[in-house]
Amino acid sequence: MLEWRYPTTTGATPLLVAGLKSVVKDRRGRTLSYDAPTHYQKVVLALKQTIRLLNEIDQTIDKHGGRPIT
């Protein structure tokens, strides 16, 4: 049986770890299929791209004077 270990590598942001925990938690108790590792790689890639885009958005907002006061 495979055991899941949370990522401990550099660059594992809290958002990435939270996303992976959610994916793994939803599948607890199920047998991994042959395609599961590929699926998890796609999930990690999607989370990394989301984090990158969020950082780009934050940088653009900061470059243009920050967020407006509401």
How does this model look, in words?
The protein has 70 residues and is mainly alpha-helical. It has one domain (14-63). Helix content is 59%, strand content 0%. It contains 2 helices and no strands. The protein has helices at residues 14-26, 36-63. Helix 1 (14-26) packs antiparallel against helix 2. The mean pLDDT is 78.
Portion in helices: 55-70%
User: Pairing-aware structural class of the strands and helices?
Assistant: mainly alpha
Percent of residues in beta strands: under 5%
Query: What is the CA-CA span between the terminal residues?
Result: 52 Å
Largest sheet: none
Which value, in Å, is the CA radius of gyration?
16 Å
Notable characteristics:
mainly alpha, 2 helices, 0% strand
Topology:
Layout (H helix, E strand, L loop, with lengths): L13 H13 L9 H28 L7
Short description:
The chain has 70 residues and is mostly helical.
